[in-house]
From TrEMBL:
Residues 1-20 form the signal peptide. Residues 43-204 form the DJ-1/PfpI domain. Coiled coil: none annotated. This is DJ-1/PfpI family protein.
Length: 244
């Protein structure tokens, strides 16, 4: 009986190690040469009722301010199931720029999925939302989630075969719902291919600044950070970038 118990504990330990990775030393990660897009990037923020202010506004603030620091600049907009008012979890009212079905919806280069009140529950059963995220995410150059937005991306199949993270206290629930995924703890964000997943909250600025530096270079990212009174140094951020 003791041998069986030890075997079970060993299996559980190995399973936990395989699915919940500790952060690497970000200071050892060298940023690649900036991509410097030759065309404007369209950035779509997917919003639903109950979206959290911080996970929406922080990255939007960064990416919208590229208009002052890059050329060509980004076009940032919101998209929702329809164009009726969206109410955030904290009570803000937002008029979406486009609906999912809008014929005027631009091609999306960066799809951003902020966390919402029901990102871990009923949003995952919303076929309209999941199908939109899957279609546009597959076609986008980059896909970013903030906090529990990772649940939506995973439900859409966009995290399959990728490494990711989510809101710290929800990592266990994330790993249980999507046991096939490799999940990182103790980091601000994880970059794997075109996927960037973030813990969210006040750290929602980090992945947006990182993407800005990745696309437009260190000078642009530092300018964006200064404009928002943020001390930005990628080497001071705990993150994971998965090798291509």
């Amino acid at each position: 009986m003791k041998k069986i118990g030890l075997l079970i504990l060993s299996i559980l330990f190995l399973h936990g190690c395989a699915n919940n990775q500790e952060p690497s030393n970000s200071s050892d990660i060298e940023m690649p040469q900036a991509i410097m897009p030759s065309e404007k990037y369209n950035v779509a923020f997917v919003i639903v009722n109950g979206v959290y202010n911080s996970e929406l506004v922080a990255p939007m603030d960064i990416l919208h301010h590229t208009v002052y620091h890059t050329e060509p600049r980004m076009k940032v907009f919101t998209v929702a199931p329809d164009t009726t008012l969206i109410t955030t979890f904290e009570g803000l009212k937002i008029k979406p720029d486009y609906s999912f079905a809008s014929a005027q919806l631009p091609d999306i280069n960066v799809l951003v999925v902020p966390s919402a009140e029901h990102s871990m529950s009923s949003d995952l059963e919303n076929d309209e939302l999941i199908n939109f995220v899957k279609e546009k995410g597959n076609a986008a150059n980059y896909v970013m989630s903030l906090c529990d937005g990772a649940f939506v991306l995973a439900q859409a199949g966009l995290v399959d075969g990728k490494e990711s993270t989510t809101f710290p206290s929800d990592i266990d629930a994330y790993a249980q719902r999507f046991p096939q995924l490799k999940v990182h703890k103790g980091v601000s964000f994880v970059h794997d291919g075109k996927l960037i997943t973030s813990v969210g909250g006040a750290k929602s600025y980090d992945p947006a600044l990182y993407l800005s530096e990745l696309l437009y270079g260190k000078k642009a990212a530092e300018g964006l950070a200064r404009g928002l009174v943020i001390d930005w140094d990628i080497n001071s951020i705990k993150f994971v970038r998965v090798a291509d």
